[in-house]
Design goal:
Layout: H1 11-25, H2 28-35, H3 39-48, H4 50-75, H5 79-92, H6 101-119, H7 123-138
């Protein structure tokens, strides 16, 4: 018997696909699309399963490390990028606790989205709240 409802993906299968896609893109929406799950389902699994949350964090960290390496490689042929990277590497990019602004931005964004979902905010209200929270957290 077939139904019009979308089949729920096998938990083990979608999580592996999601983590791999997140590691390659640092983009939750793209990872969800590739894994065939909604953002809500992915964030729910993240909040319910510590191991999955740790894999998520590691995937984002790997993606950011890759991007940092690629930026350094490209800086060898771009004076503007080289100057920018030297400025941020010189201390402005890193907090005293060793976390980067990128880490802080991810943490603030995720927590703000979680709180917005709990409060039942619309997507527009959530986007506005996330933008403001990131601005305040990064001094922007």
């Amino acid at each position: 018997m077939t139904t019009d409802k979308k089949q729920r993906p096998n938990t083990g299968e979608w999580r592996g696909v999601f983590i791999a896609a997140l590691r390659n893109s640092a983009n939750v929406r793209a990872a969800c699309q590739q894994a065939g799950v909604s953002r809500a389902m992915a964030y729910k699994a993240r909040s319910e399963y510590r191991r999955f949350a740790a894999q998520w964090d590691e995937a984002l960290s790997d993606a950011v490390d890759y991007l940092a390496g690629e930026a350094w490689r490209r800086a060898s042929v771009s004076d503007t990028l080289l100057i920018y990277l030297l400025k941020i590497h010189g201390g402005a990019f890193w907090r005293q606790d060793g976390h980067s602004r990128v880490d802080v931005t991810f943490e603030v964004r995720e927590e703000t989205e979680r709180l917005a979902r709990a409060k039942g905010l619309t997507e527009a209200e959530t986007a506005s709240a996330v933008e403001e929270a990131v601005r305040l957290a990064t001094g922007g």
